[in-house]
Amino acid sequence: MTSIDRLHLLCVVGARPNFMKIAPIMRAFADSDAIDAVLVHTGQHYDAAMMASFFAQLGIPAPAVDLEVGSGSHAVQTADVMKRFEPVLDARACDAVLVVGDVNSTIACALVAAKKGVPVIHVEAGLRSFDRSMPEEINRILTDQLSALLFTTERSAAVNLEREGISRERVRFVGNVMIDTLLRNRARCPRAVDVLSVVEGSARCFGAAGFGVVTLHRPANVDTADSLTRIVDVLCEVAADLPLVFAVHPRTRARLSEFGLLETAARGLLLMPPLPYLELLGLVGAARVVLTDSGGLQEETTALGVPCLTLRENTERPITVEEGTNTVVGTNPALIRGAVRTVLAGGGKRGRVPELWDGRAAERIRDEVVLWAAGRRPLAVLTNQARAIRGRS
Residue 381 and residue 7: Cα distance in Å, rounded? Predict the structure, then answer.
């Protein structure tokens, strides 16, 4: 079989949330004779040590290209990714560009590909918070409009896409690749007691109450003194009854310091630096409750059966509320305190694992990509594999 007989894909990864999504996809593509997938890392997540730990832990192949974009405003970062991705796309003939999630790298590479007439495949399409003040919402909407093939994690996403004029013929419900990664790696996670062993005072996390986990990074929560002060104050109140481990994002730590809140947070909470994937998953799996503004953690806690309190006014992942363990509480101190009391009194919301969150989403994506490509370019290797897939279904 020659290289020309295969479907050539450029798969884009950019920031930390993308790593857990791309890992099972690259693994599934590697198992297919019909697909030649090349990984491009934009460098939007630019902490080299953290990136290396994710790639090593999750078995992600070394990227063929690293654009080394680094930080910047949304406009600067998006523009830099576009400028650096265009020559890569020119130099590497491909049949499609696959993007995941909703970060700046996602929309930037989708724009470049679409303007050059290269089909875009979007994994995690159709999620909507209906809050356009969130940069990620803009990225989601525009990427979906540009995409030829859209893979969704929950059935409500197709309704959102149809409302925006996207034909259902372009949409495939495949499940959640984040959960593929979680299920594959859960048994490898270190114990919470080992993760916390380096934190002074962590022994109190293993009393009768247990402990909670906190993450915060959304601009609406951390970029103004009023909002961050309100959140830190209520977290410290909660921590009097339930020890809280706060894995502090770098920009959140910078804001805590800027607003004079770092000492207050350190007195009331157990502060840790950002954690590698397996270590954070080990903590979350052992927690009584997770308080977060992360979309990924809303999904992971639902899969793990751990109550999640989302410190936002909305969520683009409604299935985690409707079927899972998630409760949207915003930043209202009374709602947060009341929700934590409910967890401590009765265990909190448990929910169930949503449809197709079964660890096989990446396999379904692989198969659907082959079927889609065989309809567009009926080369022997594609049509043969497409026939085999249809025979299994």
Answer: 9
SS (H, E, C) 203-248: HHHHCCCCCEEEECCCHHHHCCHHHHHHHHHHHHHHHCCCCEEEEC
Tens digits of residue pLDDT in 228-267: 999 999 999 999 999 999 999 998 999 999 999 999 999 9
Q: How far apart are CA 268 and CA 260, in angstroms?
A: 14
Residue 152, Cα to own-chain centre: how many angstroms?
13
Q: How far apart are CA 221 and CA 292, in angstroms?
A: 10
What are 93-146's pLDDT values in tens digits?
A: 899 999 999 999 999 999 999 999 999 999 999 999 999 999 999 999 999 999
Active site residue 217: yes
What's the pTM value of the predicted model, to 2 decimals? 0.95
Sign of CA pseudo-dihedral 67, 72, 77, 83: negative
Beta bridge partners of 10: 38, 97
The encoded tokens of residue 40 equal 């491009």
Note the pLDDT tens digit of each residue in 22-70: 999 999 999 999 999 999 999 876 666 777 888 999 999 999 999 999 8
C-alpha dihedral, 176 to 323 to 15 to 190, nearest 10°: -90
Q: Which residues pair with 152 in a beta bridge?
A: 173
| Rounded Cα distance, 171 and 187, in Å | 33
For residue 245, give the DSSP letter.
Answer: E
For residues 325 and 301, the answer to whether their CB atoms sit within 8 Å is yes
41, 122, 217, 249: which one is catalytic? 217
Cα four-point dihedral sign 242, 229, 135, 37: negative
229, with CB counted inside 10 A (0-12, 13-18, 19+), is middle
